[in-house]
Design goal:
Elements lengths: L37 H18 L25 E6 L5 H12 L3 E6 L11 H9 L5 E6 L4 H6 L5 E7 L5 H15 L6 E5 L6 H12 L3 E5 L15 E3 L2 H4 L5 E4 L15 H8 L3 H4 L7 E3 L12 H4 L7 H20 L6
Parallel strand pairs: 1-2, 1-3, 3-4, 5-6, 5-8, 6-7, 8-9
Helix pairs in contact: 1-5, 1-11, 2-11, 5-6, 5-11
Bound molecules: phosphoric acid mono(formamide)ester.
């Protein structure tokens, strides 16, 4: 970055005392799980675990903070601006990046793409170079085109975080999913994890396959043959086209929504028929291991890929916990990039 502003990395009084240090990344961007080595992945998860302890009230936090800490937990982003640039809708990812940045002492700007000059025909690259001229330190970008985050990273001085690009990757979702599993089960290695639903259109599936298999989980994909991506054979997964067979004995059942915004319209039968065949309910869940846990990145379509009784099962569903842990995982990512050159 041409504008080398002074860094303020002094910890505040709320800084956690547990042992995992800030994660280190070899790249100055976080564009995908595929580009990370196992040490980088575990570094981010371990550091996220420190923040999750505090957010969930297991560390120094007394449980009175509701995700937003004032004073911040750290000053690592003090004097730095995180710019949320979302060309696709988001609730969880955008808000959790905002909370995460504020918890690290940073300033956050949310660009309303619907109200921006994109609507007047400005291109992605022109938008990015325009924003770059205002010297943000970290750019969090979501876009419907696979590769958009990487393209931006080649044209801006800021560190870029991929918050979901088309069908390609959603790396921070996979990191928060892994952290959620690790905190609940205690490990990832050796777990049998079924990722079920619209695999073909899912960046969450792709990032989770890379991450969870890197950490030693056994991954099954469960979906109609029409929702299986072409190059899936090279990813080292087992494939099932029957939900009950696919989740037989698994430890984690991760459900995905039908991403109709990326479909052509002929991939699935009616929603009712899809639920009958591929929707998760208590009866089908009985095929999984007795202690099996349920996950979903959200947003859910109740009655399509999962029914309410299953999604809201307080003993088995980790869906709300995933959202809570998302702030911690994104704090670990922002902190790691803030320590690199891109956000300096
Ligand atoms: N899981 C996820 O990316 O949710 P949002 O689309 O709400 O950000």
């Amino acid at each position: 970055m041409t504008d080398k502003r002074a860094r303020d990395t002094a910890p505040s009084g709320n800084m956690p005392t547990t042992t995992a240090p800030p994660a280190g990344l070899t790249s100055r961007h976080l564009l995908g799980i595929e580009g990370l080595n196992p040490l980088e992945i575990t570094g981010l998860i371990d550091r996220g675990n420190v923040f999750a302890d505090i957010i969930q009230g297991n560390g120094q936090n007394d449980g009175q903070n509701s995700g937003r800490f004032d004073p911040p937990l750290s000053e690592v982003l003090r004097g730095r601006t995180v710019l949320n640039l979302f060309f696709e809708n988001s609730t969880r990812t955008r808000v959790s990046f905002e909370l995460a940045a504020k918890n690290l002492g940073g300033s956050v700007l949310n660009i309303n793409v619907a109200g921006s000059s994109v609507k007047k025909g400005e291109t992605l690259l022109d938008t990015a170079t325009t924003l770059n001229a205002m010297h943000p330190h970290i750019l969090v970008v979501r876009h419907n085109c696979s590769g958009a985050a990487q393209l931006l990273s080649q044209h801006v001085d800021a560190a870029v975080i991929n918050a979901g690009d088309g069908r390609h990757e959603h790396p921070t979702q996979a990191l928060l999913d892994a952290l959620t599993i690790k905190r609940r089960v205690g490990r990832i290695e050796g777990l049998r994890i079924a990722i079920c639903g619209d695999i073909a259109n899912s960046r969450v599936a792709r990032s989770n396959i890379h991450l969870l298999s890197t950490l030693g989980a056994e991954i099954r994909l469960v979906c109609p043959a029409t929702l299986l991506p072409a190059a899936i054979d090279s990813m080292g997964v087992e494939i099932f086209t029957d939900l009950e067979e696919g989740i037989e004995g698994v430890d984690i059942v991760m459900m995905l929504r039908l991403q109709t915004e990326r479909m052509e319209g002929t991939e699935t039968p009616s929603q009712r028929e899809y639920f009958n065949l591929f929707g998760l309910d208590r009866n089908k869940l009985m095929r999984a291991a007795p202690q099996a846990l349920i996950m979903h990145p959200g947003p859910m379509n109740r009655g399509v890929e999962i029914d309410s009784a299953t999604a809201d099962d307080v003993e088995k569903s980790l869906i709300r916990t995933q959202v809570e842990i998302g702030v911690a995982a994104r704090m670990a990512c922002l902190e790691a990039l803030a320590s690199g050159e891109g956000a300096a």
